Amino acid sequence: MVSLTIDGIKVEVEKGTTVLEAAKKVGIKIPTLCYFKDINKPSSCRVCVVEVGPRLLASCSLEATEGMDVKTNTRKVREARKTVIQLTLSNHKRECLSCSRNGNCELQTLAEEYNIRDVEYEGEIAPSDIDDLSCSIVRDNEKCVACGRCISVCSNVQTVSAIGWSQRGFDTRVTAPYGRALSETNCVNCGQCIMVCPVAALQEKENIQDVWNAIDDENKVVVVQTAPAVRVGLGEEFDLSVGERVTGKMVAALRRLGFDKVFDTDFAADLTIMEEGTELLTRVSKGEKLPLMTSCCPGWIKFVEHNYPEMLENLSTCKSPQQMMGAVIKSYFAKEMGIDAKNIYVVSVMPCVAKKFEGDREELSNEGLQDVDAVLTTRELAQMIKEMGVDFANLAEEDFDHPLGESTGAGVIFGATGGVAEAALRTVYEVLAEKELDQIEYEAVRGIEGVKEAALELPNGQTLNAVIAHGLANARKVIESIKSGEKSYDFIEVMACPGGCVNGGGQPIVKAQLRDEVDAKVARAKGLYSEDKALPIRKSHKNEAVQKLYKDFLGEPNGHLAHELLHTHYVKRDKF
Q1: Among 279, 406, 493, 531, which one carries the catalytic annotation?
Q2: What is the spatial distance between Cα 515 and Cα 102, in angstroms, rounded to a whole number?
Q3: Residues 78 and 150 grouped into a single domain
Q4: CATH of the domain at 64
Q5: Catalytic residue among 205, 261, 302, 355
Q6: How far apart are CA 488 and CA 422, in angstroms?
Q7: Domain membership of residue 33 as a residue range
Q8: Is 279 assigned a catalytic role?
């Protein structure tokens, strides 16, 4: 431990603690811009400077030492911070009123807090460089504040390194390798760069107008499906608590928007367990193509395609729940309703920007029709609700439409890391044991530890070894341990985003002032587990609507028609 003084307050902290962290401990707020907890400590923007003796030092990387005397609120400090903010603003596209981050922009907040009403330093503006060729992510370098957060999360947390620094001095830019578009790189479209960007230099590729156009088209039957993580994120866009469940209000809002049917992707999550669970049991019994790697996360799929093509056959052939739902809507639902599938427009609301890329994949179509026509993020749905003037917080709750709105608790927990594995284990064990499980919560696969292992003793005497990883750096560790022979597993669940879908790149961006108060991924996961507990049926194979789908249409899990509609393949991709 070391003792220091901050603004006259004595504080004791562990050795290695930064001054920024020590100040937070005693309730002293130091502004930051380039720094992001657990991502980086770059000390590049200098907004967080403090006075130590005669010098101004960046508190985000300055380690506290014994006897240090720190001042955070002197005239010298305030003027230095204000100058840094003004210089940053002088080279920033200041279109706040029409910016997607208006009201939740860290640069805007700093300008307000430091009473900046005019920018004194009006100099040369960096040339605009907008990359909008990706179907998932748009980059606008004219808004970039060169904080480097996106580079850090892409390199350190995801080990993808699709973007980095180029050039020097005033010409310094964040770019993809060789100045290419993101769509031409090994970017996996996870959107974690969007989540850490303090401004709007990175944002999702909007599909809002496409969806409005479809709703307004009298010749189209517009069907919407919502992923489990959306229900514990959407409320934040309307000032409700982080992680608060708004399932019923969300359904009511979607009907107000004009969708003809409102279905639940959780239904398709239950369907996925039936298909993937059967696939797992088949592979384990034959001892082939193990470990089975889940295929629900499109960011993870693309990561494997770029980095580990030799393991493509280990990926489950199952489509993700989003794509399964689209396929079922355009086949089973269309047949039941007597609608030509060509006239059905399927909209997905997802916590993920990689789902936009997934929806466009040629492999995920049937008879020339894409399974999914448009993908909205949680943020985009919130924007549409706001455009309609709907009082979201006071909406009366409504239920999903039948039959594709019926789901179980197992489908709900898909949105949290470990949820797919837990849902699969609930079904796999009972199918083999042919009896009800008394305890269905698998605590070993829950939580936010980067890599979690679980061993399940099966009724036939076999042991099923599973591993759960979230964040692609952790996924890389798992794959490398398998390739080296250090580890052996039967089942691998990977979610590209830390925390799983609840922390996906399309979820609400938590305001900077709240980040130290609440861990969004933990709060949102808690919301999903509470919904799981509240549902009367908590096992995928007990979903009566799924059972009816097999009886009336699909036949059996992994059967001929199921393979035709619900399974796919993946392709090797170059790294660059």
Answers
A1: 279
A2: 18
A3: no
A4: 3.10.20.740
A5: 355
A6: 19
A7: 2-89
A8: yes
